[in-house]
Amino acid sequence: MLRPDAAPDRLADVADVADVADRHATGRALRLGTRASELATSQSGWVADHLRAAGYEVELVPVRTVGDVSRASLSEIGGTGVFASALREALHEGTIDLAVHSLKDLPTTPEPGLVVAAVPEREDPRDALVARDGLTLATLPEGARVGTGSPRRAAQLAQLRPDLDVRDIRGNVGTRIAMVRDGELDAVVLACAGLSRLGRLDEATERLDLSTMLPAPGQGALAVECRDGHAALADLPPGVVVTDADLRGLLADALEHPPTRAAVTAERAVLARLEAGCTAPVGAHAAPAGLRPAPAEEAGRTTPPLTLSVFVALRHPQRHEQTGSDPVLLGRTVAEHLLNRPDPTRSADRPDGGPGVSHTGA
């Protein structure tokens, strides 16, 4: 339960048993808004379990979105934000206290009055192939029917295997896999994270390497969103005052994973600069740069360098990779490079060296 008297740095401290017991004796359950799909409730349940482990009671509140009820393609029903708008409306109305989104479904433009209070540790960001007869992307026969609802996946499949028959599909994970089992399709491409959260990862016949197919920006990561500001939560018991600011603090303490936040910030900065939505043919993945040395101009910074890889097919297929320590600057720089590179065959090296190390290929 919520503690009205807890200091921010104590809200997620579970070491003190008496403190946890006190939380369970005070306030009310946190109302966590979630889409009603099996995958969404699995994701929200994961967040709820972590908050419960930190001593807070949580109630799941199903919220139906346009994306859940429409069978049209994402590009036809609005693309970016189609899964998030109803949850955000419920936050604004105060019927829920927090919402859990797949980060890749969130528009890059900030929502006035709301804030992403926590980005938990990311699941496997890769895509997976679920194919008949144990087939892989390389062993699918010519003309094989491959289903996906993602223009990003379709664009990369067209580049990797132009002989495939790529078909636009909708439906939840179970529905899409059934299309393969029933013989309607030879394979579907799905997110590893979604399969894992549903306990169906063993049905993947191949996990596609990041060098083969780049995921959607933010894929595999969750966003825990709540209201900005300092208003008191609604419907608290008499004498209990817990504010939105208190809630933001406890969510960050219990759930935030800074390396994931840095990586997805870089990926979404690319998307924001390209002015693309979640259905645009853009793939991006950022990860710690590892043993690759940071450029001289990055020396002395405390943020570990990231290597950001991006695929974009806005005009023609391009792929670009660059390293830097400022996630937002890195994402914007890569986007600028792609926007100003009409010829995908020219050298990737920037004349001025840029703010990072880059490697590009069509």
UniProtKB/TrEMBL annotation:
One of its GO terms (cellular component) is cytoplasm. Residues 30-233 form the Porphobilinogen deaminase N-terminal domain. Binds 1 dipyrromethane group covalently. The keyword Transferase applies. The keyword Transferase applies. Tetrapolymerization of the monopyrrole PBG into the hydroxymethylbilane pre-uroporphyrinogen in several discrete steps. This is Porphobilinogen deaminase.
